[in-house]
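Single Protein Entry

Contents — chain, fold
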Amino acid sequence: MDDCARLSELVSASRRTVVFTGAGMSTESGIPDFRSPGGIWSRMKPIYFDEFVQSEEKRREAWTRTFSGAMRWTGAKPNTGHYAVARLVARGKVTAVITQNVDNLHQESGVPAAQVIELHGNASYATCLDCGLRHELEVLKQSFLGRGEIPRCRDCNGLVKTATISFGQAMPQAAMARASEAALQCDLLIVLGSSLVVYPAAGFPLLAKENGAKLAIVNREPTEQDKFADFVIHDEIGRVMAALSPLD
């Protein structure tokens, strides 16, 4: 039996599968891995959360990056792997998708937003750091590029930032709690495209395993958690997931 068939058997036997995705999930959509050569952080220095809050210059730099497309977090299209995961969700096999990605591609592929747990936020919109009001990027872009206005909240005049979790920013408590609950309730957790080195997010697969769930890892390169997994495939995610969840 080949690897894809064995993984398919694990999914078929599962009653509550959770998918956990990292940057490798989206590299097949043309979004570079953050930390690999050619990735975002090898090309530009991160702007830390405290810098953004304290410095108008850093806020202007952050928004310039966002609207120039330099971050490359948005504008891509879902790939074969995203659509395969969406089919598993639609068929009731996957109950939740926990993601480290901020590109909104799971939602664009058809996974209901309520079933996507974003640990590092979402780059497709912005929020007020004071009142939490959502702001659409296209509206902010017009003011920033047209009049040079650094975005402020239209309701409370607070600082507005893309809805991503920056270095030094607290992890989102609600998302972390939902991810913990999903990991504890699942009987199978499938990791797709995560190197599993960024904590606390990378702790959820181990939490599921320690609670009795099966752990499967699909990643092009070995991870530090391979030795704990019940099943490991080192291959392209799109190929594996298309075989696991073929079109109807």
The longest strand covers residues 121-128. The CA atoms of residues 99 and 177 lie 14 Å apart. The beta strands are 17-21, 94-99, 116-118, 121-128, 134-136, 160-164, 188-192, 214-218, 231-233. Residues 32-72+121-164 form a domain with the SIR2/SIRT2 'Small Domain' fold (CATH 3.30.1600.10).
